[in-house]
Amino acid sequence: MRYSTGGESHGPFLTAILEGVPAGIPLSAEDIRKELVRRKGGPDRSPRMKLEKENAVITGGVRKGLTTGGPVVINIPNSEYREGVSEKNSQADAFFPRPGHADLAGTLKFGFAESRNVIERASARETASRVAVGTVAKKFLGGLGVSFASAILQAGSVKCASLPSFEKASLLDPDFPFADPRLRTRALGLIQRCQKTGETLGGKVWVCARGVVPGVGSYAEWDSRLDARLAFHLMSIPSVKGVLIGGIEQSVTLPGSKAQDQLIPGAVPYFRRKTNFAGGMEGGVSNGEDITATLVLKPVPSSKFLKGSVDLRTLEPALPEIPRNDIAALTPAAVIAESLLSMVLMEAYLDKFGRDSMTDIKRSLAAYRKRLGPR
Questions:
Q1: Which of 142, 144, 180, 239 would be a feasible disulfide site paired with 297, CB 3.0-4.6 Å?
Q2: Edge-to-edge order in the sheet of strand 240-245
Q3: H or E element: which one contains 182?
Q4: pLDDT at 198
């Protein structure tokens, strides 16, 4: 299975193509739209998000509400786009690269005279395409008993003392799913103050998958390790600068004898553990516990107070232009993380249980579950 995305931030639409999708997965444009609406929400979002309708259009790979086995092709119109009107956003030259963005590095890489081409493609708007293909993966895994949850652990200086449970995360307000309800008001207050001053924030986001059977992923080849594949995908989210698997922040301070997830004797349907410091993966293979990871996001680099640029024409000092921007990318990052986690798990399930049709995959999974237990 593989996917590709195309399109620009202020172009007519984004496109996502997902290949290797089994036949028989229920999928509609409304399924995708709901996830895209989740991604655009939150008090930390740019004013642009209020304009986007996120009306996904499936143009291939689905017939009568079911995937056909062919590539799934999804278009996401950019509601803001109006030909000949979006001149400043999509066509105007950008001679003042913004520190913290891909502007200068991309300009040097491709030999451009200015940064507009880089800004349009490197924009976090591209992640809407990945949330779209993640919807397909969620529908696939949902039919196999896997579900997802996410939460915000930290916004700037306001941070939770511990990781949430899947159950608690599932009940959080999706518009701003701060893990500790007692600190949520403080976090929102900090975001509101930043909105007034023009400052931005970083933070941490937690993501979880429940219901993953033990034995997906592999230790046999380094690039088949499930945790490595997950970290690779999560690190591709803009502003993410670190990925922590499981409860490593807590366990790293413990002696080794207490940092391992001890087995519970006689537990069914699979072997279970008293803790989940490993984040549901041991040796690059799922172990039946919840798959969990924490993403560390840098402050959004489009602060109103951003300085330190140059004019690419003269190489003289200049102030970068700051467009509309998120205060913090935490709310969308939680949704994007769920999508990418689902993509990694879908690929691992296809590796183990087959690729052609949901009927065959479910039959293979049922036989595997029977072999595993109860013991």
A1: 239
A2: 158-159, 147-155, 203-210, 291-297, 240-245
A3: helix 181-197
A4: 87
- Provide the terminal-to-terminal Cα distance of the chain, rounded to the nearest Å: 34
Structure tokens at 244: 């922590």
What pLDDT sits at residue 47?
62
CA 66 to CA 21: how far, in whole Å?
Answer: 11
DSSP at 11: S
Q: What is the dihedral of CA 184, 188, 191, 192, to 10 degrees?
A: -160
Q: Give the integer Cα–Cα distance in Å for 96 and 315.
A: 10
Q: How far apart are CA 340 and CA 346, in angstroms?
A: 10
Give Cα 128 to chain centroid, integer Å: 10
Q: Whole-structure pTM over 0.90, yes or no?
A: yes
Residue ranges per structural domain of the chain: 1-91, 144-304+329-375
d(CA 296, CA 305): 22
Among 201, 209, 203, residue whose Cα is nearest residue 150: 209
State the average pLDDT over residues 191-208: 94
Nearest-5° angle of CA 207, CA 277, CA 187? 45
Phi then psi for 152, rounded to 5 degrees? -95, 125
DSSP 8-state assignment for residue 95: -
Rounded Cα distance, 212 and 145, in Å: 8
Q: What topology does CATH give the domain 144-304+329-375?
A: Chorismate synthase, AroC fold (3.60.150)
